[in-house]
Amino acid sequence: MKTFKELPTVKPLTPLLDSLVDLKNLSNFNSKELIQLTDELREYLLYSTNISGGHFGAGLGVIELTVALHHVFNSPEDKIIWDVGHQAYPHKILTGRKEAMPTIRKKDGLHPFPHREESKFDAFGAGHSSTSISAALGMALGGSKDNKYVSVIGDGAITAGMAYEALAHAGAVDKDLLVILNDNNMSISNNTGGISNYLAKIWSSRFYIQVRESGKTVLRMIPSAKRFAKRTESHIKGMLSPGTLFEELGFQYIGPMDGHDIKSLVRTLNNLKDLSGPIFLHLVTKKGKGFIPAELDPIKYHAISGQISTSTSKNLGPKYQDVFGEWLCEKARKGDQDLVAITPAMSEGSGMVNFSKEFPEQFYDVAIAEQHSMTLAAGIACEGKKPVLAIYSTFLQRAYDQLIHDVALQNLDVLLAIDRAGLVGEDGSTHAGIFDLTYLRCIPNMVVMAPANEDECWKMLELGYEHKGPAAVRYPRGNGPGEDIIKDAEKIEIGKARLIKEENSKIAILSFGSVLDIASEVSEKLKTSLFDMRFVKPLDEKALIEISKKYDLLVTIEENVIAGGAGSAVNEFIHSNSLNVDLLNVGIPDSFPIIGSPNDQKDSYGLNAESIIKRIKTKID
Asked: Of the listed 398, 474, 477, 537, which one is catalytic?
């Protein structure tokens, strides 16, 4: 295997990779050619991602597996479902998208994750984790018996409850299904190296399988003997491998084995592809394999920014996640023993690393388990503590039932710090946080806040922490506008907006959250009054009544879907109180975001000053 210490800056020569005009030719490659192909694929992935940026370490860790899967299986007739999609870059390169890889995550470029409309080889779209086993099982149940169905899931994704629900169902229905665990953190791997690969080779061999299945047939008429044989096999394998759990769920467990040994992978997959029933193949891989810096620091190299930056942000302030992290630390440093911080596997992204190190007894990373994280917070609140759950907007969707049933219905004292709210840019529609205002404001007992800058974010976190009951502060990805945080200033009052600028105009702009910069530009050019509404629930009803009497047109601006969002809340209040004022709602229409930077996405929706000004002029003409 070729290894690299630096990212290639010159496009590498890839003769074997270029020869795969028809992917089916890959099945004819011999072992030597497969090894060369993995080297070419790894080098090209390093080169293209260095240009484009994007997810990095996970793809390097599955180079050999990707080649082996496409060598053994007949894709796209055989379905290969990649969980999450971070690991799917090599798959995209192999399946006809090599030259387009530098465009990944860019406007009009490749999607960052598998996408059914992009390629027939992308069997299932993915962005959120732990869905691949359910999808693969559904395909196995609904598809042709002549096709093979393969789920590739990581050791992080398999911690989610949905994955185990799917495993349990797959074992129960006994359909032909291959689940491959890409274990790149050794989180459940106790037996690796020579003995493990030897056992994997034996347990996947046709001889072993034949003996095992023949024994089942012979013992089928003698239930007690069959149970004894099964227990004996489980005990023997349980002493040597971590696979007993999967065997109990109804899977034939193979592994753990080296996920970078291309020859063993091909041999094992060939042995397994024609077997019946659910099979679980456990591979041990190394994240960032082949690129030395990524092997040494996989967290840093989970993703890289690339040479082509799509960021056009004018904001120079700290990242909102860092504002949250510093607020969290300061609360604990003041001796607040009731504070309990929770995250579902997003401690780095949510700015909680320093807190986790400084206050480990007050911190819980529950892994990819959003539903559990919400009900865990509810349980902690029941005991008089104050849980703060930091969660991305897109992942909060997965804990919606628990938020309603376990937190809001019981009016429990839980603060949600909702990161990545609004348009998030290059990760595309799967990670967009554009629905939270809609699905939060309809829940009784909730307080929903949307800060316009760092200072408001800090003060709203403080307000939400002091509030008795469920509260949410939703803030965007990236940097704030650079507003100084004045910690000892007057506190924000729940449900109170603030007047930013008053003009002798018949138009008032009502800005919700981080779009205040756009709203300010519109207000300045049209000489309108401007309000920072701050709260989506409760609305400042007193202010709305006064504003409606004074102005002829209210323009609401938000970075959320228009349907049911902040603007809709204003509409409902105006209508229910029979207030005579015209309305214009600006936000995200009924479509998913395009691939591109946050500004690309805003422009596509007309969520910029120029487009909003045109809409206002059209409205008043």
From this structure: 398
The DSSP element (H or E) to which 268 belongs, if any, is helix 262-272
Query: With pLDDT > 70 as the criterion, what percentage of the chain qualifies?
Result: 89
370 labelled catalytic: yes
| Contact of 589 with 605, CB cutoff 8 Å | yes
Task: Considering the candidates 97, 175, 286, 287, report the single residue annotated as catalytic.
Answer: 287
Asked if 25 and 74 count as a contact pair (C-beta separation under 8 A), the reply is no
CATH topology of domain 15-304: Rossmann fold (3.40.50)
| 267 assigned to active site | no
Q: What are phi and psi of 5, to 5 degrees?
A: -105, -20
Q: Name the one residue in this structure whose structure tokens are 């938020």.
A: 403
Dist. CA 13–CA 11, nearest whole Å: 7
Residue found under tokens 């694929």: 41
Instruction: Tell me if residue 248 is catalytic.
Output: no
* Active-site residue (options: 64, 370, 454, 559): 370
Domain 498-620 is of which CATH architecture? 3-Layer(aba) Sandwich (3.40)
- Nearest Cα neighbor of 133 from 161, 94, 91 is 161
| Per-residue pLDDT tens over the stretch 256-267 | 899 999 999 999
Four-way CATH pick for 320-474: 3.40.50.700, 3.40.50.970, 2.60.120.10, 2.40.50.140:
3.40.50.970
